[in-house]
Design goal:
alpha+beta; CD59; four-stranded antiparallel β-sheet
Amino acid sequence: VTACIAFFILNWSCPLALALKCYQCLPRVNGTCTETKTNCADLCANGTHVDFYIKTCAVPAECVNGSLSAGFFNQTFSTKCCSTDLCNTLPVQFPNGKSCYMCDILGKNCSEMVDCEGEQYYCISATGKEKMHSMAIKGCSSKSYCNGDALSVQVAGTISDVKCCEGDLCNSVENVKMSLFLTLGSLLSSTLLY
């Protein structure tokens, strides 16, 4: 009776009609799985646990990344969480070991670090423009974005002053100023030589 009451209260406080829909893929012993749709009461998540790819619903406390290296045993897990129906379609990418500085949503505080993922081997600094406002953009980037290949997809005029670098945490304010100083110095010296 207690279990039924608890279940009823849970169902009543989180009605099925309002529950989130997620793709679910829980691996079998051989590592394969069949993707199905399920109802969730909280968040959708993609995740990789050891060598298993898992797709299911999760609570916020389960939306974490981490790794453990103990000599004979290594484990890395990466989770991406989202909160709209059937949003867990993209594969999870593991951090690649590179870190860059990133800015807050207002583009004011750029002192936090972010772990780069997948093919993001460059740190980027740029200026974003939204109507009449400009803001700093910092983070991780792929080579194609730094080369301008992906910039053509952007709406003209929304991102400018793109600078990329390859070192860890190389997109700090000090490094950008030093790069600008060196560029101006080389221009000045070449002008003086002529």
